[in-house]
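From the pipeline queue, job 12 of 40. The input is one protein chain; the requested action is below.

Action: predict structure.
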Amino acid sequence: MKERLYAETAPRTTFSFYRYLDLADPRVFRDELYAQLDKFKAFGRIYVATEGINGQASVPASRWEECAAYLRSVPGLEDLRLNIAVDDDGKSFWVLKIKIRDKIVADGITDPAFSMQRKGRYVDAREFNRLAAEPDTIVVDMRNHYEYEVGHFTGAIEVPSDTFREQLPMAVDMLKGKEASNIIMYCTGGIRCEKASAWMLHNGFRNVFHLEGGIIEYANKARQWDLPNQFKGKNFVFDDRMGERITGDVLSRCHQCGEPCDTHVNCANDGCHLLFIQCPRCAETYKGCCSEACRVGERPEKPRLFHKSRHRRAGGDFGTKISV
């Protein structure tokens, strides 16, 4: 199927979307959505839960308008924001998968009093730039550390973790004493920072904002409106591209030799598949593997998780075990 995708000559449009809404029967919703998207020759990965929908997909460019109109015709998805990829070759997905999940973004929240009905205020690219320039504003990156590493907004603070569920309580702890400050939360497409904004309000913070459409929408609007682009580097994405270039800045380094580099790869050892950053020279030396052991074919005894203290040490095992 992947070979068939790469043999396509017609361009594809890659996009992402989400919506928090109450779904009484996610399975019925999923089945109807799959049947319709399949007609548009859509490929992608979409999650459906009682709390809503979260998806990334691509369709032939010739079917884009038709597909967008269908999605916005679905009850509950009216005026759905569809974030078109910034740096797109149309080869992100080669099969359509729509899965039922407990939540569209795993958060670890068990407090029955928490509700997505009360969430932070949206800011668009223009408002973000204005508000972020104010001295009392704190900009918080609600993505994983390996996403932050290759690109982030100027002055944004990192909540260093592998998972969103860990970040939520960490963000509250990190910002204690700043309950009256302006806090802008952002993520890739908006889904995580929207929930994070609701969690911060739930925990007593008062002036909470979140970036509408996330980094993807910001980059598109900054270009369209000719605004100073405050995001530097790459925007990590969870598909075969592993990143879309926003600016030419290279913020990170090869995890093996320390040279400036922001190319994520999965270790070529099928028993490993660790996600890490590797420059072309080390890719040749290690044959696309994260370590000498993986290069010679040894199978790791257990998954190895990235740890910041091991970051940029030459020749070690680095990264986060994520296959994309």
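Job complete. The two ends are 16 Å apart (CA to CA).
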